[in-house]
Amino acid sequence: MFLAAVLGLSAAHAQTMPADQQTPVVVELFSSQACSFCPEADKIMEDIATMDNVIALSCHVDYFDVKIGALSKPFCTDRQTEYVGLFGGGTHYTPQMVVNGYMDVVGYKAEKISAALIKGRADRIAGISIQPKAEGVYEAQLPAMDVSGRNVKLWLATIDKPHKLTVASGANKGKRMVYTNIVDTLSGQGAWDGTEKHFAVSPQLTDAQAGFAIIAQDMTSGNILAAGQVKK
Q1: Residue 11: pLDDT above 70?
Q2: Beta pairing, strands 224-231 & 126-127
Q3: How far apart are alpha carbons 168 and 171 in whole angstroms?
Q4: pTM for the whole thing?
Q5: CA distance 58 to 156
Q6: What is the pLDDT of residues 151-165, one digit of tens each?
Q7: What domain range includes position 49?
Q8: pLDDT mean across residues, the chain
């Protein structure tokens, strides 16, 4: 497996922990089919998505993209723009990985990604339990935690099954690519005050989608406080 030697270090770290202590790590990749540096990052993301207790969200930005078969979404650019502000007002770039909402890593630098994953395991993000309740309806449960002084928002992201395609235009024209865990929709689910919370979600999954994820994020610092996912 590509990067097994490097990413395996993080996986081994998780395997030494009891199951009830293996907390989720959220990895967001901001990528583009038009970016010549992105294919390596997209491949790394494919491997990351197979790791236990990792929620992998690949978001294609629209400020530059291919003209044929684009996977980009305006909300991906909006979300990256929020991170640009949180990280000190730098600049947009691809491929960018964001781990647990506050660690900024160039998306093809394997050793730095592995270090961020290991650090992310130590963050002890709370798990969000998500259980099916009826056809197309799930109940999410957030544990109580102290979020005093924080602006915490809940997000729901639907995730596509892998896109296997040949890039039709741009710098990567002709390359056969697998794009894993592309975020198809991203919607706010309201604020959270830190009390134990049960709420229903209806993600309206299609046959082309692999599942969905829910995250609770401090929108002032970017830190993800709780997360959970459902895989079809």
Answers
A1: no
A2: parallel
A3: 10
A4: 0.92
A5: 14
A6: 999 999 999 999 999
A7: 4-231
A8: 91
Structure-token pair, residue 154: 């809940």
Band of the pLDDT at 121, cuts 50, 70, 90? Answer: very high
- CATH of residue 189: 3.40.30.10
- With a cut of 80, say whether residue 89 has pLDDT above it: no
**With contact defined as beta carbons under 8 Å apart, do 104 and 88 qualify?**
no
108 to 31, 44, 92, 119, 143: CA distances (angstroms): 11, 7, 16, 18, 35
Kindly report the number of other CB atoms within 10 A of residue 145's CB atom. Answer: 16
* Residue whose structure tokens are 């629209």: 62
**Cβ neighbours, 10 Å, residue 153:** 15
* Full DSSP string of 158-200: EEEPPEEEE--SSTTTT-EEEE-SBEEEEEEEEE--SS-EEEE
Identify the CA nearest to 47 among candidates 232, 153, 169, 180.
180
